[in-house]
Amino acid sequence: MSDLPELWKKLSEGESKSLLKKHCTKEVYEKLKDKKSKLGGTLADCIRSGALNLNSGVGVYACDPEGYEVFKELLDPVIMDYHKVDKVEHPPCDFGPQDKLGFDPLDATGEFIVSTRVRVGRSHEGYPFPPVSTDEQRKDMENKTIAALNTLEGELKGKYYSLETMTPEENQQLIDDHFMFKNDDKMLGDAGGYNGWPKARGIFFNDNKTFLCWINEEDHLRFISMQKGGDVGEVYKRLVSAIKQLEKKLTFAYSKRHGYLTFCPTNLGTTLRASVHIKVPKLAKNEEVLNKICADNKLQPRGIHGEHTESVGGVYDISNKRRLGLTEYQAMQEMYNGIKEIIQAEKNAK
Ligand code: CIR
């Protein structure tokens, strides 16, 4: 039997500041409660995490790519509210002119930027998201992805490391080096993100560990390009080159309205998060100024151990906040220009 009535009771009777609580009104609930997507996704799959975790900021995940339309009376308002747009629409993918991106090194002396990372999420077309996915489907997706990744050449050529077979020591080393994902996010776990863990999970990386792919973490696929220092252009170009090669082998879930479809509605559109680990000890003493620059430039500051963590030693993880309603190139430019301003402010600070 579905756990939907119980989830609804928790949500409707509980106190919560989440977007789920705000937009899942009784009327919306009544309209959607008996709907089902072709892959079997239900409203319960979309609201489970937020109903079980009233401290969620968003609280909603999609059950599968089609869920964004089947449950749009809930998802559209959540998307518009989170992404601060008044319509769910998205321009076609545009990575910008790769030969003249205009991303000159931001920090030539290496004083501020510790490392740079750009990631995108992708979903396999025709497969559900974690709460609806079976172990078999996850395995299928893993195999498909490995086959595609194994065709990469040159700098991107690498190897797949399965979470099922790596030793705990290898796993810990990869976590410590900020390469590997973990299963410690309760909200994601309650959304079904760790179902069947560690089956069909793993990580692919090239010899230099500058290109990585996570398989069956929050999204079916996360492509990541990263390296030490602040050469944003080099990091971005590597990622774009990988995506272009991989999309010849794999078909990704995409909608004209939403762009690339991801499990969490916060990542829709470009799905792009471009971040730096940046050392700004002076601004760290005055977080108000830092937060204002971030807000003005549509950037999101986090601690370096991921979302909802504190800064350590004046080092922050700062990234673009907007992912929907702009192109990949524009999202990159927002991050680049904002970080430039932060470095200037740190230089000017007493
Ligand atoms: C929340 O609602 O607060 C969580 N479900 C996280 C939302 C955004 N973060 C994410 O997807 N990693």
From TrEMBL:
Keywords: ATP-binding, Kinase, Nucleotide-binding, Transferase. InterPro entries: ATP-guanido_PTrfase, ATP-guanido_PTrfase_AS, ATP-guanido_PTrfase_cat, ATP-guanido_PTrfase_N, ATP-guanido_PTrfase_N_sf, Gln_synth/guanido_kin_cat_dom. It holds the Pfam family ATP-gua_Ptrans. The keyword Transmembrane does not apply. GO terms for cellular component: extracellular space. One of its GO terms (biological process) is phosphocreatine biosynthetic process. GO terms for molecular function: arginine kinase activity; ATP binding; creatine kinase activity. Residues 1-84 form the Phosphagen kinase N-terminal domain. ATP binds at residues 115-119, 178, 222, 273-277, 302-307. Residues 112-349 form the Phosphagen kinase C-terminal domain. It comes from the Eukaryota. PROSITE patterns: PHOSPHAGEN_KINASE, PHOSPHAGEN_KINASE_C, PHOSPHAGEN_KINASE_N. Belongs to the ATP:guanido phosphotransferase family. This is Arginine kinase.
